[in-house]
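Justification of computing resources. Each target in the renewal requires a structure prediction run like the one illustrated here; the chain below, 169 residues long, is used simply to show the kind of job we budget for.
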Amino acid sequence: SFYKNVPAFNDGSTKQMQKLLYEVMGLPVRVRNKLTATMRQNGVTQGTAKTDSTAIGYALLDATAEQKPILEALRLLAMVGTRRSLYYNTYPNFVHWLTGRIHSSHNQSATVTRRASSSGPNVQQLPVTAKIEGTQAKFRSTIVPHKRKAVILSLDFAAQELLSMAFQS
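Resulting C-alpha cells:
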C-alpha cells in the first residue's frame, strides 16, 4: 500500500504526543501533570508534560505560523475522539428496538445532592455550544418530543429544575 513505510501515530498516546509537541516541534512545556507519590519517592520534582487541549492551547501561543495548523488539527482530533467515545460509539447502543429512538431516563433525585439527572444515556452532557469555530452544535437538535403537541423544556442549572419540580408537585 501507499502508506507502507509511514510510522503510525496515535493522538491518544501521551508519550507520542509529548514527543511530537516537545521534542519534534520544540515547543516549551507550559502545563504539567501533578506529581504522584511514586514520582516524589524517586526524587522527581516536576510532573510530566501535559498534552491535553489546555496544553495545546498554550502551545498555540508559542507556535510558529507553520506549527499552528498542526496544533489546530491535533485539537480537532482530540475533540472528535472525545465525542466519538461519549456519543457516536455509545448512543447507537441505546436505540429502542421498537421505536428506533433513544429513550433516556430522567431521574428526579438519583444523585447524592438530590438534583435531577439523566441516564441511559445521559442527555444532560450533550454539548450546547460548537467547539469548532464557524459550525453549530447539532447534538441537541436531535432531541424530539415523544408525541405530538408535547413540549421540550430546557432549563439552566441555577436550581430552575428544582423550582419547576416543586411547582409541579
